[in-house]
Every structure is written in structure tokens, then in C-alpha cells.
């Protein structure tokens, strides 16, 4: 376990270096000029332009700017936003709660709804099973932005049950504002988890040891819980973990659609204004979260099934 975690830590550092370089190079090559953001689109005298260029070191070569950013990031200094003139760490901290709440809410929907529908479909062949198969086949192909449009049109505009924009104030109002974004983010993943749960549980229910347990008179609920669902938990947990990791990137689309003040929406805004420090800082946080979630998935799979060896063959 310790050796595996050390390898994962080394992989995380390498991933952060590669991803930060790619993001930095992409922003550097993208059209636009940070001076346009700094000047607010106004025409500035040459003296003012020279001051801004010197203050933000915009005339340094590409590799010098990247090396300076890496050196500062290692010390915990993510720089200053050129648009808001605030510390990047403070800007990220003020928005991270929204993104984290959205992903946790969506993950709960994926686990509870996806596993429940998949389990019921596996244990109840017939009409309900057919409806789950057809429904999940349709929903699994729906991207988050399409789900967002449909949910806003139905539940916010037509029925007026839930708000469509903003973060809300207070805990319960915040939950109401996050409900539609969470369902839009979780829709496709929930359908995928339901299909995998159905297939895995049905396969386990046909195994010889499960049929033996049923023939011995063990309560059906106990057989399902201890033998079928437990053995099917590895593929279900693996897929659920992968979908939660993908939500870290997909949250940007949902946050923009619902006007949430989260990291994803701020990442898009900062990229459009070529705010290098903010984009790099947010990318650093998101990549770290992605690698950590995948590490937790691997560790969880090994705990569920001792035959799985971390970092090696089963």
C-alpha cells in the first residue's frame, strides 16, 4: 500500500507538470492579449502599457514565464489575477465550495439512484427491467448541457418548481439551487451505473454459490446483500468513481449553464480573458482532485476484493 501511494504521488507530480505546461502553452498560443483585459478594452498611452508589461512580466519569453510560475507555485504562491487584482488562492477558495457541493450532490444521485434502479431491474425481470434498459440507453447518451436545457425548460420555466440560476443564500436555498445542476451533471452517469449494476447483479445471481445459498433457505434479501451485491460492488464502484472523476471536468459546462459561481465557470471566464495565473491555479486544483479520486477508486476496489493487487496484476 505504501509503495503504491508513493508511486501515485510521483505520478501526481508528473501529471501536474505536464498538464500545467500544456495549459500554459495553450493560453500562450491562443489569440488575444492580456493587455486588453488589463486596460478594460481602452486605449492606453505607451507609458501605461510599459508599466503593465513590466509589472506582470508579459515581455518575458514563454519558458521564463512558465518557470517563474512553477517556482512560485512550489512555494504556494499561485500569483495574482489580472482581471480582479486579487490573490488566486483566495479566488479559488471562495469558489471551490460551490464546485465541491455540486459534485458531491451529483455523486450521491449517481450512487443512490443508479444502484437502486440497476438493482431493481436485475431482481425484477419483465416490464420494469425493460423500462430501465430502454430509459438508461436513452439517458446515457445525453450530454450535460442538453440535460441542463431540458431540466431548465421543464422544472424551472414550465413548472416553476426549482430555480434555474445562481447559488442561492443559506443551506436549504443553496440545495434548491444545486438540485437541477446536480441532476444535469449526474444524468448520463446515473444511467451508466444503473446498467452496470443490473448486469453485474444479474450475473452474480446466476452463480452457483448464490443459488446454493437460496436453496439452503437463507433469506432472499440476505443473499442479495451479502453474496450478489457485495461481489458485484467492484465494477459498480469502479465505474461510479470514474464518473465522479469525470464530473470534475464536466462541472464547468453545468456551472455555466446554471450561472453558478464555481471553479469550472470561473475557469472558462479566465481562459477567455487570458488570465494565466487563475487558469493555471484552477487547473492545478482540478487535476489534483482527478488523480486523488482515481487513487481512492483503486484503493476502494482493493478493499472490496482482496484478489486485486494495487499497482499490479490480480
From TrEMBL:
UniProt subcellular location: Cell membrane
Domain called ABC transmembrane type-1: residue spans: 96-297
Main location as per UniProt: membrane
Pfam families assigned to the protein according to its UniProt record, in alphabetical order: BPD_transp_1, BPD_transp_1_N
Keyword presence, Ubl conjugation: no
Keywords: Cell membrane, Membrane, Transmembrane, Transmembrane helix, Transport
Membrane topology: Multi-pass membrane protein
InterPro entries per UniProt: BPD_transp_1_N, MetI-like, MetI-like_sf
Any one GO BP annotation for this protein: transmembrane transport
GO CC term (a single one): plasma membrane
Residues that span the membrane, as ranges: 102-123, 130-158, 178-197, 232-254, 282-304
Family listed: Belongs to the binding-protein-dependent transport system permease family.
The name this protein goes by in its record: ABC transporter permease
Organism: Spongiactinospora gelatinilytica
Taxonomic lineage of the native organism: Bacteria, Bacillati, Actinomycetota, Actinomycetes, Streptosporangiales
Amino acid at each position: 500500500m505504501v509503495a503504491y501511494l508513493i508511486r501515485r504521488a510521483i505520478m501526481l507530480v508528473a501529471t501536474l507538470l505536464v498538464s500545467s505546461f500544456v495549459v500554459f502553452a495553450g493560453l500562450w498560443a491562443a489569440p488575444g492579449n492580456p493587455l486588453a483585459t488589463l486596460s478594460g478594452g481602452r486605449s492606453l498611452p505607451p507609458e501605461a502599457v510599459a508599466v503593465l508589461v513590466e509589472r506582470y512580466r508579459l515581455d518575458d519569453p514563454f519558458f521564463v514565464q512558465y518557470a517563474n510560475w512553477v517556482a512560485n507555485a512550489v512555494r504556494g504562491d499561485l500569483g495574482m489575477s489580472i482581471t480582479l487584482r486579487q490573490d488566486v488562492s483566495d479566488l479559488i477558495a471562495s469558489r471551490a465550495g460551490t464546485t465541491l457541493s455540486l459534485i458531491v450532490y451529483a455523486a450521491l444521485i449517481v450512487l443512490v439512484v443508479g444502484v437502486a434502479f440497476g438493482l431493481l431491474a436485475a431482481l425484477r425481470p419483465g416490464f420494469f427491467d425493460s423500462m430501465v434498459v430502454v430509459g438508461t440507453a436513452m439517458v446515457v447518451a445525453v450530454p450535460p448541457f442538453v440535460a441542463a436545457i431540458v431540466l431548465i425548460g421543464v422544472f424551472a420555466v414550465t413548472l416553476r418548481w426549482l430555480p434555474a440560476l445562481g447559488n442561492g443564500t443559506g443551506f436549504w436555498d443553496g440545495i434548491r439551487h444545486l438540485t437541477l445542476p446536480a441532476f444535469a451533471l449526474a444524468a448520463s452517469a446515473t444511467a451508466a451505473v444503473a446498467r452496470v449494476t443490473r448486469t453485474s447483479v444479474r450475473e452474480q445471481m446466476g452463480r452457483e454459490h448464490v443459488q446454493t445459498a437460496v436453496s439452503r433457505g437463507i433469506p432472499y434479501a440476505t443473499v442479495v446483500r451479502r453474496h450478489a451485491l457485495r461481489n458485484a460492488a467492484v465494477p459498480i464502484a469502479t465505474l461510479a468513481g470514474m464518473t465522479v472523476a469525470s464530473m470534475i471536468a464536466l462541472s464547468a459546462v453545468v456551472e455555466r449553464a446554471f450561472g453558478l459561481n464555481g471553479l469550472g465557470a470561473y475557469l472558462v471566464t479566465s481562459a477567455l480573458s487570458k488570465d494565466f495565473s487563475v487558469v493555471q491555479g484552477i487547473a492545478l486544483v482540478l487535476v489534483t482532485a482527478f488523480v486523488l479520486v482515481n487513487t481512492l477508486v483503486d484503493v476502494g476496489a482493493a478493499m472490496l476484493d482482496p484478489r486485486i493487487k494495487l499497482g499490479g496484476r490480480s
